[in-house]
Records
---
Amino acid sequence: MFDRDTEGVRIELRSLTKHYPGQPAPAVDNVTLDIPAGELVVFVGPSGCGKTTTMKMINRLVEPTSGEIRIGGQDVLSLDPDQLRRHIGYAIQQVGLFPHQTIAQNIGLVPNLLGWTADRISARVDELLSLVNLEPSAFRDRYPRQLSGGQQQRVGVARALAADPPVMLMDEPFGATDPITREHLQNEFVKLQKQLRKTIIFVTHDFEEAIKLGDRIAVLREGSHIAQYDTPAAILADPADDYVANFIGQDATLKRLALMRVSEVPATESPAGPGLPQVSADASLREALDTMIAHGADRCSTPAGVLTYAALCEAVGTRSGEQEDVVSSDR
Amino acid sequence: MTADTLAVGRSRKLGRTFGARHLFTPVAICAVLLALYAWVGTLELDSIEQRSLNRAVIVTKAVEHIQMTVAATTLVVIIAIPLGIAASRSRNRLITPIILTVGNLGQAVPSIGLLVLATFLMGVGFQTALVGLVAYAVLPVLRNTMVGVQQVDPALIEAARGMGMTRGQILRRVELKLAVPAILAGLRTALVLTVGVATLGAFVAAGGFGELIVNGLKLNRMPVTIVGGVLTACIAFFIDWLGGLAEDLLKPRGM
């Protein structure tokens, strides 16, 4: 539908508006946004800000009142909605696996709608189960009820990926799991996306999740107005206004530390003695800081040398006074 | 591992319930029929009683009774399931109350009165009896179909739509499949009701065990009435048992 290429394609939203009849204000008001090919863009905002509605207009579960949507240059509103949806991956918070179908039937649903042969579907199901770290022989013939919440979410992601769509829409797909499982699923998903390079729109109200997963974040306010649209690092370093700063919360600098790896900061001294606490090269700076505080030290040793507290501050661009401003501008 | 144990546990449980629950009813029915046979055997039957209580008559009445039940239920399935689906659609919101009212009326109007009215229009016979039976049994199937379809988790419908299933595909592959247990339960209720109400067929010359009951009462021959009543009850229990089996066998796996 949008090219044979299953890697991500560009999504363009132009003056997209949804006005439900009988309501004073539009739910989504004149949104214009470009989502570059192969990027994961997170829509983040409070409940009821219209982020889900905006996302659902892209696969036309919600029909826009006015505006234009292009996927890979093609006008979405001119396509048959059912056909369109078969070429867009869709994962939701409640997962929505069909309880009367096996895991294999659930995952094979869209390929089945697209008329793939049984052999091709079955091979694809096994491939996808392996991709989301579920042993195909053990899970293929089970029913959703026999899976844990985290396993069901994985199947939900596998099902969305089934026909290898270039575009995926995900509405809090990890929302219904406990924090430990969620973190685990997020980490796996980051790895998966590095491999797949789909264009993904990911809706969440959890800013931490947005930072962790997003190539870019669109912070939305009431009516789906875009408060800021930028990379996580840029939003954390320079929130556009009070609303965004509020949304980030008090610990913007700590969150920025979490985005940076130890290996990205030049080691300041030659390899140090055995007394210093150790951190690995791909640990985040936040973890390095945590290690320092835990050991009451102002430095820790990395594979490349020694990381000092001062170097860490420099890495996030802290100068005395500036941090104070960021915090006070919240109030 | 957990799921394997779970699956084994389920099938074992199914086996056990089959043993206890599903064998009790046929055994009890056989016992009652034997007791009835033995009891009638001890009686001195006069000529009137003999005319009713002999093999040929009882077999004929049983066949008539079951024919009436099966024909009425088939019609009920044809009428009530599509109506129930129609009533469950949100775009039919306006006609749903009308459909339900008609279904309710069918059950609220006394069957005997309805049969009398139908007799004026159609004369007596099998078809007239069917009108009364169908009117009476539509409601449980209609309502259960509607509720069964409506209670499907909206998240499933949203997921189905989001994956590009058409409305027809969602109805056939998701909503109706998941409504099967509810529809079967309604059908089972309807069947049992029909067996009971089919005794009224005697008043419009449609036959069935109702004739034994009515004749027994009119001619003051208690054994004839009792045989008619007990046999009707046995059919009702037997059909309920079949319905229970069908529910267990046809309900979607994985639920």
---
Amino acid sequence: MANNVLAAAFPALPAGGVRARRVLIGIAIAFIALFLVLPLGVIFAQAFSLGAGAYAAALADPDVRAALLLTLGIAVIAVPLNTAFGLAASWCLARFRFRGRGAIVALTELPLSVSPVVAGLLLVSLFGRSAVLGGFLESHGIRVIFAVPGMILATLFVTFPFVARELIPLAEAQGSEEEQAAITLGASGWQTFLRVSLPKLRWGLLYGVLLCNARAVGEFGAVSVVSGSVPGQTNTLPLEIQTLYDGYRVQAAFAAASLLAGLAVVTLVLKAGLEWRHRDELRATRRARIP
Amino acid sequence: MSTRIEIAGLSKALAGQVVLDGIDLAVPAGELTALLGPSGSGKTTLLRMIAGLDRPDRGAVLFDGEDALARPAGERGVGFVFQHYALFRHMTVARNISFGLAVRKVPRARIEEKVAALLRLVQLEFLGGRYPAQLSGGQRQRVALARALAIEPRVLLLDEPFGALDAVVRRDLRRWLRRLHREMHITTVFVTHDQEEAFELADRVVVMNGGRIRQSGTPMQLYREPADSFVYRFLGEANEVPCRIENGFVIADAGFPLGRASVRTGNGTAYLRPHQLMVRPEETGAWRITEVVASGHTSRIGLARGGLSLEASLATGQVLALGLEAEMAVEVEITGGMVVADTAAAPAPLLPGSRLARPHLADRPAEREG
């Protein structure tokens, strides 16, 4: 792959150029090995450092299990919500020109530029027991901060932009002529959405959802501020890893970390597999310069 | 089963800007009609309103006498071909064509039959499995047409159907579409800014400008009797010559006669098509050739006389035969044209008036030099 790119960039290299090319490729591979492959290996090496039995025992720990379930549960709520938002935002922003449109586009990116800790503090100041909103909810028996609802809100905030920022430029570039064509051909609104709008965005949607999911599962800062870190109750997997590590249970921490790393690897493999299965369509549509 | 389209008083304003201003138009069943006009003339908006993609502020659109505006686009039975085709990029050619049938829940076997027939019709039998991005412009255009025809529309609407294609493909597709229309006889309206395209394809041409219809008629009618100077100029290149009319004689402001017209007296403008100027070498000629530009079959000849510059077009073969070249003194015969007097809106034909021209030409030998 890197080979092709370089070959395209430097079409006819003289003999000295070939050496330069090898050096550049070597640097790239060394960099990837040092900063991506090695850490991944270290995680698993540490996780299995006391043997497979200890690894299994660490994962069988009820607190780790609870953390895994909570992490997945939060992602299952946050990802679909932000996907729905991203679809709605891209649809509306790509089709309509209105006052404040630019401000909305800029605001969707806000969570990316705000530190997650600040996001967490913001939620505490809104929903904390001494805040007006938090006090009101508390008096009705709804606890937000130091409980799961707050963690879901924090995750929603942090993962808010991922689907939207993937889809907005894509929807803008694609325009709405295909939808108009569908309508003249007799498709209803739903048929148009399901058969035309959604499929033509589906790859952007997939990448957006994967990024959103990765962030939702891995979020630490914002969630840690609002969670209270009660093992077995309000610890997500990243928080549980922190708890274990702070308790000098290094091998158990790495075992839990291997779960997160494993999730990431599975996601990558799934994505690559999908791309491979649809390679014909992708090749055709990526080149889609239908003006 | 051709459908007649009638349009009455169709108007639309967007953000205070008039887009369409009281359009009245009847498209007879089975006819091929061109909406011709410059960009911003409202022709595409009119087409989209017939399709149901835009809504008018006022007015009526009737298909065979029934109110089309009351129905949404999907129920009007229109086939619409977009300028950039708007093919579904994530679907193969076959699935693009079958879309209109699939959303109508037509049985699968019937759909397959129909798609195969349409692929044959548009001569793309072997490309059903391709994606739009893998097709050439002309092929995409034909897929778009097949997709529109799949729903057996009452009316076929095409927006700048050949705008994005290169010259050769465009010519072939034009002829092919003409043939197709002759066979199917669907009432068809297409939008174009290219008068040649409109004239070659259409039974009737509707010239639009500024949201109004300036004239509609057969290509011959428009060419012979343009309603005003806009139509005249839009239907082909024209030299504009400021002139005055004295007792039916048209005299250029530059000081020589152009011909005769049925207008009595007053100031005005004469319009002369480049091909209406006959050029022949003449040592004592009052005109001078400023340049000769050969562009394929025809050549453009720049002509000057008394501060007036005109452009003539001649067959290149003729230019060579006559030995025309820059700086040559020539005689120019005006074989036709149009005169619009400032006082009258309607144009009058310019008739050759050589009887008056001779003595004047003889008066001005001094102009030849230079």
---
Amino acid sequence: MTETKTNKPLLEVKNLKTYFHSHNATVKAVDDVSFEVYQGETLGIVGESGCGKSITCMSIGRLVECPPGKYEGGEIILDGEEILTMPDAKLREIRGNKLAYIFQEPMTSLNPVFKIGFQIEEVLMQHRGMSKEEAHKAAIQALDRVRIPNPERVVDDYPFALSGGMRQRVMIAMALACSPKLLVADEPTTALDVTIQAQVLDLMNELKKEIDTSILFITHDLSVIAEMADRVMVMYAGKVVELADVNTIFERPLHPYTRGLIESRPDMSTSGTRLNVIPGNVPDLSDLPEGCSFGPRCAFCKENCRAGVPELVEVEPDHWVRCYRPGGVDLDN
Amino acid sequence: MTETRDEIIRRSTKEDSYWRGVWRRLRANRMAMISLFILIIIILSCIIVPMASRYQTYEVIPGAANKAPSSQNILGTDKIGRDLFVRLFYGGRISLGVAVAVTAMECVIGIVLGSVAGYFGGIVDTVIMRLSEIFMCFPFLMICITLQTVFGKSIKTLIFILAVLSWPGIARIVRGQILSLREMDYMEACRALGISNRRQIFTHLFPNVLAYVIVYATMSMASVILTETSLSFLGLGVSPPTPTWGNLIQEARNLMVLQNKWWYWIPPGVMIFLSILCFNILGDGLRDAIDPKMQK
Amino acid sequence: MKNYTIRRLLQIIPVFLGILFILFFIIDKAPGSITSNIMDPRMTPELKAALQAKLDPKLPFYVKFWNWIVEALHGNFGWSAKHYKPVIQVIGENIGCTFALALAALVIAMLIGIPAGIISATKQYSLIDNFLTVFSLLGLALPTFFAGLLLLKVFAIDLQWLPIFGLTDPSKVNAGFWVRLGDHAYHLILPAIVLGLAETASFMRYTRSSMLEVIRSDYIRTARAKGLSEKVIIYKHAFRNAMIPIITLLGFRIPGLISGAVMTETIFSLPGVGKLSVEATTTRNYPLLLGINAMLTLATLLGTLVADLLYAAADPRIKYD
């Protein structure tokens, strides 16, 4: 892991703030989030729904709808270029080319009235300047690469003819058509059956090696993270609460929330006993509690947790935690 | 303290706070509130003006035919000397009254047929839906005209005809709602809790369907006003001397009137326009208030 | 596609027969008859009864219905006593004007309403969106007859830019074909605008809400993530989808368009089916009334059929077989 650190990061997100304004409230969906993704690595982002992980990943390609959303501050530097201040035309050159997306809902993410082939060709014609015929051939290759049987036939199918798993493969084919440097996968397997899920994940891992892309992988499923990620970032209420490599996260989680997530996971060793659940609910982002957002649900919460918001600190090399009492021990000791 | 089953049901339906929420959201909609205000003013004046005016609706003022607006007759007089101001508001009574009556009748027919179709399904559903298709394909205005000829012109037959021709819309909405509600999780939960059918209908289906019916009825007021005034304008709706907004405008089919006497036709036209506009905006507002998901 | 078309055509038949049956039933129960409007003093009651028996013999209702259907299938829709012509011919002479009027209004509505709706949706809550939304609300609330009178007063009477009524200028009755066609078009400008106004408003409203729904969908986000330009996203990806419900609207608008045409023709004294039917009503010309209604019902049904087929063609998810 350390050798990747010597590289310049592919993606640098610095103090990103993405807020949603409605007439009576401001939702800080992404609040001062910073992280890096290095060349060839997979960074996993974990958190419950509504923790801001999806908005974080949308923000990278400026895909958040504005209004109601607004980028209130921060920088996103992808391969040396600042995304947030870039003109639209430049941004369009990057989207689908250097930076590609796979979304959660394969059933609704493909345009129902266009053929599969056309939807892939479009990307190639846009970014690679291919002719219609070249793009058509390349589209068939792209479908073949994601192990879709009979790509020559599927290329002329409409999305409704394909199953969810197949459509997600099409989405992957489309995303990888231009060999992007960064692939953002927003819960790509959540909507799929478990067996299909495993197939799609394997495919992604293989293709990642094949075209040497970095992946930003978002999920709420820890077992998926364990399989996919090199490093893991845990988010809670719009903030990063813990960031470390995948083994550290699973072996020595320090933030009480990360611990809660790991302990509430059903697995073989705990079968027969009651699951540990994190008490309470995800807080309303427009009405956060004073101090640490996780305070009200935390077993180790003390006065200072209610008084101020802790900083994200590096408690051991490459292990960052946002907590006054990581692992239940006061930080000062 | 443990809740009884009934209390759980009552709390879970949240009927009370539901309607309060609707009202709160509606009140926040400025356009809808202005429309509601204008409608209330129009309705009140239609009630009060004919009672308070010193002229009667059918009273011919001697020697006052074809007068332009003056302090005596605010909107002038017609060709035989009747005060057009009082006739305008009396006409409003008829036009709005017909709209209310038709909407009420149409809702009753539509709700009954729609819920029967949705609840029983099967062949009953097929027959009612096919029937509604037939009614929807009628060339509406033409059929109104034909029926008026056949049954004779009277306000009662007009109301009856319009109601009978308009029910499919509401029936389809009610049926659709019932079908989708039947599939919803909480209906499933009701069945699991062993709550009776009758109870399901009254505590769950009814408030939900009612919301849509209210929206539809508001919109329907607008469209009935439009249809009635159109028919009356053609001389095939309410017949003179009874005034309605439609047949008051009819005078303007005479080019001399159209050219020189705005007070014959502009005021009823504006009243029709305003009330249709306000009912439409109010209906839109109600729909948004009832279904906040549709907004943004 | 062929099978689907045939099946839909077959589905139309029972609905059409059902409507005809109801129409026939109502008209059969109508008071007065063909002979009741004959004012000729030489017409004795005996003669009248004989004529009545010849033109409209006393038969059971269902027999009459059956006879009418059989005759109609042979192209005979009855005799219009007032015009001394077969009903079908009278309708044929008048339907052109109605058709032209309705078509012109529909074209206006689509050419203005759809683009305006798209602009309104893509610039939601902007100044232009608010302006267009207000315009469509006003357009929907303005009754055809009132709009007709207002425009007539302003453009035909006060400004005298356009003709007041009719379809032909008396001086051009005997002119060449193209001159007459131009004259007809000139006479139809104002009526088509009046009829097109409400249609434009409803197309705009419908396009706006349809586009708004589509724009928020996942596949539009995908299109953005692919790096496509806004133009391609809106006019290709979004509009191809938003178009589908608009096509259905086309079918549903036909009865409304016919009702609107009736009003417009009456206001502008155009020789169309609308005006004809109002006349048929006031003169109790029942065969003509029945013929017109049958024709318009058929037009409505075929219109919805065409809309259905277009719908199936626009949406690949619908299979025809």
